[in-house]
């Protein structure tokens, strides 16, 4: 299968190792991966701020870049959800946009639902706390919401349990928002930071050595708090752990 590698702009600029780990994972499981070099922001920041009319050029460029792939995969639940729900273009391009919306996947979702991964040759002997980001959990349904009386599941956790030597930390509030919220952390920085501190305190209380998740934007927010408080917690995207030896 031909897979288009969708790398969000903040991953490209600040966390390129996450993009590399994503590529390695996809190729490891036999995917023919292509990376459109002229891809740019998907338009989510403008749309979240109420300026979706300014995303039209982003949409057209995204369609041009990814229309010919069988699947599109990205290591970011929030950006993938934006494309899945909001990618539209005018005229003949709308059919291609529809194809992309139906075939775009967050990385862990793609590994579990499409590739049906059951085994991983990864080794990571640390206590790992999983942050289940809101867009992935409540938008893409990567894991069950704890407030629902329903069978529990977590696609990221399923993959992490395949890693040799790992010890998953059980958090007190396992699916609480970290406070990042995209532009929310700019408009309401005090509330955002306080929410992030609460999430980090939960990890400290339960002995997390490495904090991970599937959305680098949330992890970036939490990592900033960890650095300012000089805490002994390392932050890694889940793709980096799934490729660890």
TrEMBL record:
Residues 3-84, 128-222 form the Cysteine-rich domain. InterPro entries: Cys_rich_dom. GO terms for cellular component: cytosol. One of its GO terms (molecular function) is oxidoreductase activity. This is L-lactate dehydrogenase complex protein LldE. It comes from Runella defluvii.
């Amino acid at each position: 299968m031909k897979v288009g590698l969708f790398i969000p702009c903040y991953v490209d600029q600040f966390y390129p190792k996450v993009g590399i780990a994503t590529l390695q994972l996809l190729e490891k499981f036999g995917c023919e991966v292509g990376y459109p070099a002229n891809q740019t922001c998907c338009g989510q920041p403008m749309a979240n701020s109420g300026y979706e009319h300014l995303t039209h050029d982003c949409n057209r460029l995204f369609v041009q870049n990814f229309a010919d792939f069988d699947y599109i995969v990205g290591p970011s639940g929030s950006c993938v959800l934006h494309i899945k729900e909001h990618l539209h273009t005018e005229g003949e391009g709308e059919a291609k946009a529809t194809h992309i919306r139906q075939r775009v996947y967050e990385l862990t979702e793609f590994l579990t639902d499409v590739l049906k991964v059951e085994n991983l040759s990864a080794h990571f002997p640390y206590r790992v706390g999983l942050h289940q980001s809101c867009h992935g959990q409540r938008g893409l349904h990567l894991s069950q919401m704890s407030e629902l009386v329903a069978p529990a599941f977590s696609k990221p956790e399923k993959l992490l349990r395949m890693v040799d030597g790992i010890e998953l930390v059980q958090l007190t509030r396992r699916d609480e928002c970290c406070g990042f919220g995209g532009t929310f952390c700019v408009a309401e920085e005090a509330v955002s930071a306080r929410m992030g501190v609460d999430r980090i305190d939960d990890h400290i209380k339960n002995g997390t050595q490495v904090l991970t998740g599937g959305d680098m934007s949330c992890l970036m927010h939490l990592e900033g708090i960890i650095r300012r408080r000089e805490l002994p917690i390392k932050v890694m995207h889940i793709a980096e752990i799934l490729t660890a030896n």
